[in-house]
Structures are given as C-alpha cells and as structure tokens.
Amino acid sequence: MNIEEYIRKNIDYSFQENELPFKIRQGKVKKGEVICDYNQIESKVYFLQKGIVQVNIENANKDIRIVDFFFENSFFCSYASLLTSAPSDVQIVATTDCELEEISAHELFQAYKHSLIVNQLGRYETEKLYLKRVKREKEFLTQTAEERYINLISANSEITNHLSIDAIAKYLGIHPESLSRIRRKSIQRIKKTNKLT
After folding, report:
1. How many CB atoms sit inside 10 A of residue 100's CB?
2. What is the mean pLDDT of the chain?
3. Based on the number of CB atoms within 10 Å of its own CB, is 182 exposed (0-12), middle (13-18) or buried (19 or more)?
4. Domain-wise residue ranges, the chain
5. What is the pLDDT of residues 3-41, one digit of tens each?
6. What residues are paired with 103 via a beta bridge?
7. pTM, rounded to two decimals
8. Contact of 179 with 150, CB cutoff 8 Å
C-alpha cells in the first residue's frame, strides 16, 4: 500500500491522482539502519510500506528501552521533534529491511495551511497515535507482562518471526529471561487448550 491508497482506504474524502500538495519520495533502509537519531531534528514524515521499525529511548544510565514499534501501512517519525523542531529524544531504527515513502516536514506544514485532505489525514493519524499510546499506558498499569505479551503477538502475529527476544523484552519492560519463561508458559497453555478441543 502507498500513501494515496492509504488515504483512499481511511479518509472519508475523494481526491484525484496527484492532488496531494506535497512530493512523495520513495526510500529503502536496511535492517539496523538509523532513520532518525538522538538529537537530530526530525525533517520528514515516513509511511512504512514494508518492514518494521522500532523507537528507542535511553534512560539516565544509557540503557535502551523500546517505546514503540511501527508496522506496515503506518506513518511514523520522531513526532515531538517534528512538532517542536527540538532535537529528538528518541532514536528510530529499522528492525528489518524496510521500504517506505517520505514527505518533507516543511511541505507537510505548508500543506496544512490550505489542504482539507492533509488536515483530515493529520487529524486521523494524531487520533490513532493518541489511542495507541493510551492503550499502551493502560496495559502497563493494569496487565501482567504475560498479558501484554499475548496482546502484542495477537495484534501482530508475525512479530516473533522478525524480532529478537531481547527486543520484545525491552518493549514489554522485562528481562529476556522473564520473557523466555512467559513464552514457554504460553506455548504450554496453547498445547493444553489444543488437546482439550
């Protein structure tokens, strides 16, 4: 899917080919490549066509935590840096080889001044991101690590094929050893359920 197809699918607005008031550039990044680094000012918005990216943050001890993953057909960037023009406090890294489309932040902000469709898209993405963050906060406050793991793989079944145990553990806020125990327990539970049916 590309940006135009995404808009047609998700925004209640019909538009003609080439009506979007910004240029869309194609890009590819290799697994492990940094898309936006710490202290870099975000200058683009990305649409992920293929692959997975992760958003990292460092604590005071320089330990890296993964605060988010983005999957295919998602917009992403260092949002706080984009909106404030301040240096990014997160790092965005390609977890797999990725294909993406890029929009210049300058062109996007210019488009907000006169384009209804760009404003609708911006609102849609902002609301989606907000709900995603609220859901994640609630999960951390109300669910066990095992429940959070089950939710993660239920929503993104391919995640275990592409992400290391270490990366998933960092996202869940637990040690890799704890995640290994949770995975074993989950597999045993699934096997028991299958035997009963």
Report:
1. 24
2. 88
3. buried
4. 3-142, 143-197
5. 989 998 998 766 655 678 899 999 999 999 999 999 999
6. 45
7. 0.85
8. no
